[in-house]
Amino acid sequence: MAKKKKYSGEIDKHVDWGNYELSGETYEVVGSSVQNFIKDTFEQKWGFMAKDKTKNLYMVFADEENYNKYLEDPQEHADLKLAEFESYSNYYMEFNLANGTKTNNAILKGDTGNYISFYVDTYQKSEEGSEPIKVVEGLFITIIIARSAGGQDVISLNGTTNENEEGYVKEILIDDYLAEGTNTITINVIGSTTNAVINSTITYQVINLAIVDDIKIDNVHHVSPSTVDSMTINWEVTGSASSSKFIEWYLDGVKQENTIPPIGDGLETGRRSYTFNITNDFYEGTHNIQYRAYMFVNGQYFYTPTYFRDFIVHKESETPMAAIAMTIPIGHTPLLGEEYKHPTLYGLVQYVNYDLLMYVYSVYTSVEATASIHNGGLLSTKITTVFTDEAKLISMTPTLNGNGTLTIEAINENVYEADVVVDELDINISENNTGLILDLRALGKYNDNNKETWEYGTYTSTFEGFTWDDNSG
User: Fold this and answer.
1) Which of 348, 440, 445, 459 is the most buried (most CB within 10 A)?
2) Using CB atoms within 10 A of its CB, is residue 72 exposed (0-12), middle (13-18) or buried (19+)?
3) What is the rounded distance in angstroms from the CA atom of residue 437 to the CA atom of residue 143?
């Protein structure tokens, strides 16, 4: 009798392990193939069910071992889950976004004050035509923030309830969890009594965009009918490579339509420059450049702050001239027309140092200048410094909050003015009036002479409402 050939490939339930007819020949199936067939068959049998409470689903596995392995890494071991189906419940939830929270969001990197707000209501199902019954219960809330840049955070909010009629509004600041790229926020909610579940997803696209320049506000341009100067602006733009980046700039409050090539898709960083002539047609005094970068993403424009840079044109005047550099925050537009001649400084906070880059030019070797801020006619802060040929970063500490005026004076001339907005400090600063000890000298005093008045040198104290006895004198 001829010896049968061995077959070591894959088989199914129809194969005769001892006499496998294939292509006119008879094979004997080897033990390893039989073993793999048996194992694979068992792996596909429904042998264990578990409930996914975050999705109100039953999951099916071959056995508990596969279930536990799946829990270790659901993405890597997704093939171990054989099936899933919805779990019936007599209760259901409604998920509602609140306080302006949107499902899809796009922000500029560095933006702060990003909150997600929501509330959840639980209802008991009722007969058709009847109003559902609201159920008051505790909520187990898990928020998973996954970043395309890598990593994720999990926030648990156990103990939250939905007891008020409008639903319990939960508000969470998420600034510290967001990173450049796509941030997917999954909110899973489970009712502590009903086991009803609901989930919702919010996305934040964080866009990286920044621009810097090399403009020197102390570079004075000297011109005359026969002398022409020039100015070159060099910019460096950094941003997400997924979209083109553009530069928008203004000269003396007028938007320049000169075409500056964009930094195209696929590039994170790009450098651009522009040169223009400064002729005798420029008036003598302080001129200004403003610029910002922008991107167009998902149908929306994203701008950097506007950067405000003065420069000085000198012809023949002996009057001092001043220039400043500052930042106009996002949300405020560039200054148009002659608004640049009287700008507004933002970002000042009461009792907090504010740094201002400033330069005062004089035809003389040096010039002393004083920068002061007044609020309602009252002096809020003041600093005096000497300028030669370089700009200086001066630090000012306003003591008054509200709207005020910055004034720069040199050689008895008011050479620059700007509005300022000083925010009130959150911390309450006031004189200490508790637990104080009064320390007076008893020299020359005795018990029966004028106890209500004490004098020492140039200081006099008068007491009112005191009861004088053996203890108090």
Assistant:
1) 348
2) exposed
3) 54
Q: What is the pLDDT of residue 449?
A: 62
Lowest mean pLDDT among 30-34, 162-166, 208-212, 230-234: 162-166
Task: Using the predicted structure, report yes or no on whether residue 33 has a pLDDT greater than 90.
Answer: no
Sign of the Cα torsion 461, 467, 469, 472 reads negative
Neighbours of 282 (CB within 10 A): 16
Residue showing tokens 């975050």: 54
* CATH class given for the domain over 342-429: mainly beta
Neighbours of 238 (CB within 10 A): 16
What are the beta bridge partners of residue 293? 247
Domain ranges of the chain: 5-86, 91-207, 342-429
pLDDT digits (tens, 9 = 90+) for 174-225: 999 999 889 999 998 888 888 888 889 999 989 889 999 999 999 999 999 9
Q: What does the pLDDT read at residue 203?
A: 94
With respect to CATH, is domain 91-207 assigned 2.60.40.2550? Answer: yes
Q: How far apart are CA 340 and CA 451, in angstroms?
A: 65
Return the HEC string of 51-115.
Answer: EECCCCEEEEECCHHHHHHHHHCCCCCHHHCCEEEECCCCEEEEEEECCCCCCEEEEECCCCCCE
Distance CA 402, CA 422 (A): 5
d(CA 156, CA 310) in angstroms, rounded, equals 51
Strands 20-22 and 25-29: antiparallel
> How would you classify the pairing of strands 354-361 and 229-239?
unpaired
